[in-house]
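### Sample
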Amino acid sequence: MEVKKSLWVAEIACQLGLFPRSRNILKTIALGQMLSLCICGTAITSQYLTEKYKVNTPMLQSFINYCLLFLIYTVMLAFQSGSDNLLYILKRKWWKYILLGLADVEANYLIVRAYQYTTLTSVQLLDCFGIPVLMALSWFILYARYRVVHFIAVAVSLLGVGTMVGADILAERKNDSGSDVLIGDVLVLIGACLYAVSNVCEEYIVKKLSRQEFLGMVGLFGTIISGIQLLLVEYKDIANIDWDWKIALLFVAFALCMFCLYSFMPLVIKITSATSVNLGILTADLYSLFFGLFLFGYKFSGLYILSFTIIMLGFILYCSTSTRTAEPAESSVPPVTTIGIDNLGLKLEENLQETHSAVL
């Protein structure tokens, strides 16, 4: 009797899609934390370059990453045929990808540059402004419709960020503010908004077009834009670098971490959403803090563990419930069908029900 009851419960769970859904949530968590570790790698290498070797060249670091994207994904597009070919894409959408490349390049530059003017605490707090902006853009551009639980999940995750900032203050971490905190705060807010624009465009492209097209176009125009800006604003800083193998190795490590971040993020966004990914990578600062305990002598605080737990709780809560798409009937744009990992569970549920009916 107990065996029959267990089999019946398992059958019901399979029909409801609970097992695949749980696996997808765990998979999404793992992928999100992999992205966080990539961001952590860029933060650690940048901090080493700045503090130990007095090298502050954020545009050069970004330029190397865009060059890698160009050499791999843009060249890949050049050998594609039909509508996926590089020349075909440039003829039809070149000006759109120029704007996308400009938003992506300047978002990276402004956030890093803001550290020269304001404190680390301000950057951590104000950078979260990009999440509500991202949700608003997804609402109007991708027609994503959120449930109450999604707003609660975002609030919980931001509470975790606030806990992390409180841990910074109690641990008396060194916050080197520059000449004008207001300028730094404004740079962070602008950079966060540009990140949101870039992420929404990324979600649209990878779900309705292709991952290769997004990375190839960002690599092409990112290389051009960052190269021009590099010559305009950082040529003196680059000329003053006292190059050795350690500095070169840090540049290579930064570029590889950034390249992995750009390469894997579209894969995660395709099965979830840009908002979900941005919630998941809130833990990147915490990973940087944990590594900083050993590398830079940071003081440990139990609030770091609490902060990590709260952020992950909000992230899991967000992923546990699917969003829906409210595409206008008159729109010629194909609907987004993969926002939120629960859509995968719903699709599996429909398939299981059809199979079960056919068997009966």
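The beta strands are 144-145, 324-325. This sample (Solute carrier family 35 member F2) is used throughout the tutorial notebook.
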